[in-house]
Amino acid sequence: MEMTLTLESGIPILHPHGKLTGTAVSAFRERLGLWIDDTNAESLLIDFADVPKLDSSALGVLVTAHTLARQHDTQIGLINVSKRIKNLIVLTRLVKVFQCFQDTETAIATFAPQKFSGARVKRLPTTPP
Predict the structure, then answer these.
(1) Residue 7 host element (H or E)
(2) d(CA 109, CA 9)
(3) Are 19 and 52 within 8 A, CB to CB?
(4) How far apart are the C-alpha atoms of 25 and 6, rounded to whole Å?
(5) To 10 degrees, the CA torsion angle through 59, 62, 64, 68?
(6) DSSP 38
(7) Where do the domains of the chain lie, and which CATH numbers do they carry?
(8) 18-57, pLDDT tens digit by residue?
(9) pLDDT band at residue 116 under the 50/70/90 scheme
(10) How far apart are CA 83 and CA 26, in angstroms?
(11) Which long-range contacts does 86-92 make (Cβ < 8 Å, 24+ apart)?
(12) ∠ CA 82-26-108 to the nearest 5 degrees?
């Protein structure tokens, strides 16, 4: 199983390639955990464009990654999820845990940190008048 990590608009995107079944799941677990620990990013996207199939172990890895990401204040989003994988995510109710996006641009727009507009914020008194 091959995996690459790219950076787009400041957001790391993990690209697994191939089926996430059997022994490939162990490599996926290890690398995903390392990247969450090492990147210290506010968000991480996982691109499933080149993943035709995943099994229940891979779903378990996603749940574990979500837990680890929460400890690091990181959000995980899933992009380019096939209908088959989306059905598994819905069936297991992980759709409540992960945001799924059809394309990278929408995911980046959602996960990108909001830019400060430069407007001045008026301080409010701490005690009522």
Answers:
(1) strand 2-8
(2) 9
(3) yes
(4) 20
(5) 180
(6) H
(7) 2-111 (3.30.750.24)
(8) 999 988 999 899 888 888 887 778 889 999 999 999 999 9
(9) very low
(10) 24
(11) 88/54, 88/59, 89/59, 92/59
(12) 40
- Per DSSP, the residues of 43-68 read EEEEE-TT---B-HHHHHHHHHHHHH
pLDDT at position 5, please?
87
Q: Which two tokens stand for residue 50?
A: 């080149």
Give the pLDDT confidence of 65-90 residue by residue, as tens digits: 999 999 888 889 999 999 999 999 99
- Alpha-carbon span 80 to 78, nearest angstrom: 7
Is residue 124 predicted with pLDDT exceeding 70? no
Q: What whole-number distance in Å separates Cα of residue 107 and Cα of residue 69?
A: 17
Orientation of helix 23-39 relative to helix 56-71, angle to 10°? 10
- pLDDT score recorded for residue 123: 46
